[in-house]
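Feature request, filed as a ticket because there's no other form

It would be nice if the structure record came with a short human-readable summary line next to the tokens. Right now we just get the raw output. Example of a typical job, pasted below so the devs can see what we mean:
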Amino acid sequence: MEDNRKKKAVAYWLLAGVFMIMVQVLLGGVTRLTGSGLSITEWKPIMGALPPMSEAEWNIAFEKYKQIAQYKILNNQFGLADFKAIFFWEWFHRLWARSLGVVFAIGFIYFLVKKYFDKQMILPFIILFILGGVQGLIGWIMVASGLNDTSLYVNHIKLAIHFISALGLLCYTLWFALQLLVPKEKLAYNKRLHNFTLITISVLVLQLIYGAFMAGLKAAIAAPTWPSINGSYIPDGIMQQSFINHPINVHLVHRTLAYLLFTLIMFWFGAASKFAKERKASLLSKARWWPFILVIMQVFLGIVTVLSAPEIVFGKVGTFEILAELHQLVAMFLLIALVINIYAVRKRIPTT
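Raw output as currently delivered:
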């Protein structure tokens, strides 16, 4: 009983970390949508926790921003007050990341001193801290890709890597918590359903990558129509353009994957429901509903977000930006729901 109490305490701490990672991803979205990501041109993991503290320091930071293409070409009308507005979101995004590290570090030290950990937990925690550190490094590499004389924004491929690595950290933390929270008797075993769930998650991950490409290339505004793409269901000349770098082609792939994912989850839900009737006490009985509900919400949000793209005003938070953030939030919930389901349905019964 005492061991279970300790495991639950550690698991709830990890779930708090999951929540903080989700907030961090959303703050990254706000930073991108407000055009704030390149406002801080240096990476100072420790000293950068404080913003400029005097007018002179603000002017130094602003002068550094003036050296990059985003200011010279896009924001050359900015005054210091405008710069402070975009600086805030990038600074807060980085501050939240630091806070996340502090929460994990303090919790780890506390539970270690109180002897809440068993030997099996140490290696996963080491991996967790390494993943967190790597995520910060990836974030800086992404920002650095836009700090030059030619780029208006960060590289969309590096943006996608940063986004997916953050979600990987989220899923790893969630899985760790589930291992401590879910009793083995709540698990079900079905190889076909497990593999079906894995395929569905793989399609979702690819969809999330293309969602990041959409964001990085500002592809929503390139085709703010639905169900067609600027009047065509298959745009002309798609084979002459890149499916990674061209906004219209990225838009086409993102939509196609959305339809595929929706179809997969409808069939998956049918299969999971049929199997769940045989295992009423399993985690699957409740968990299967969430992908079904969330994918419907996600498709709807995707459509209305694209249709609202003509209302984009650079540097302003309006209808498009709010819908885009909701679209990103529901995508994270959908990923979480599918991860919980693949945790709930294992491929085979353990031999030991």
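Something like this underneath would help us a lot:
The first helix runs from residue 2 to 33.
The chain is about 70% helix and 0% strand.
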